[in-house]
Prior knowledge:
By secondary structure, this protein is of the alpha/beta class. The chain has two domains: 4-79, CATH 3.100.10.20; 88-284, CRISPR-associated endonuclease Cas1, C-terminal domain (Four Helix Bundle (Hemerythrin (Met), subunit A), Up-down Bundle), CATH 1.20.120. The protein contains ten helices and ten strands. The protein has helices at 53-61, 88-96, 100-124, 130-136, 147-160, 174-194, 213-218, 223-236, 245-251, 268-284, and strands at residues 4-8, 13-17, 20-24, 30-35, 39-44, 50-51, 65-69, 75-79, 258-261, 264-267. The strands form three sheets. The chain has a four-stranded mixed beta sheet with strand order 1-5-7-8, with helices on one face. The chain has a four-stranded mixed beta sheet with strand order 4-3-2-6. A hairpin with a 5-residue loop joins strand 7 and strand 8. Mn(2+) binds at residues 148, 205, 220. Belongs to the CRISPR-associated endonuclease Cas1 family. Homodimer, forms a heterotetramer with a Cas2 homodimer. GO terms for molecular function: DNA binding; DNA endonuclease activity; hydrolase activity; metal ion binding.
Amino acid sequence: MLKRTLYISNPYHLSIKNKQLVVSEKNGMPLKTAPVEDLGFIVLDHPQISFTMKLVEELNEVNVATVFCDSKHLPSSMLLPLDANHIQNEIFRAQISATEPLKKNLWKQTIEAKIKNQARLLSKLGKNSIPLKAVGRTVKSGDSDNREGFAARLYWMELLGRNFIRDRYGDPPNPFLNYGYILLRSAVARALAGSGLLATLGIHHRNRYNAFCLADDVMEPYRPYVDEIVFEMKKSWPDVFMLGKEHKAELLQLMTADVKIGETKRPLMIALSQTTASLAKCFNGEQRKIVYPEFD
């Protein structure tokens, strides 16, 4: 079932009644309701939003990714359940005991899928994807010679021009890409929790200060879905330098973007669950290949 995404940027009070999320004015007047089981992703972007602990309990129960924004209106933290899968202990053990050759093979698959999807996006936009496709065919186990980095240079130069520098603190559209990637990361973390995986324990990323290393791994082939949204937005506002509410709302469409896996198209949030479930099976030895999307 397609899960709904909510973006709340006013000082509302959030509560629960009869399994329904109730959005109310501070004076208690209800404005809107939504079944909790229909929700997949909520972004709270106002310092005066309040909510009940019962609502938090219900959101956790159905594995809703609840994202909190900071004073700069950027996603800064997230609410996730600690027990979202009935065989979580078994999956944790398999993930922790994964061999280095297995992790290197999984990372090779991930980078191949990422570069292929970057090339597909360039082709879709009528840009030259031939050099990128060639790089994608040379990825080694563990991406030992960093084909990912080389492909990124080719990709950004072709997608946004020779003068564009992809940098976290760089000029627009970098802030728009950052926001989209944070949303994507949150959605991946939600899917990992639902599949019983430890988001902290990555197959490649190992930063000791990063609590979402596995999310950073798995999101790589999905990044072009963010890139496409930002590219299309940029065409309609070439002189915009501030990330506004309307842009954030548009980036939230990422969660319902059509994603092709095999011969089937499904919303991105559902596709992520299929990807993370396949990764859990790889750790358990049930299969050898992660199910990643093919950018269409």
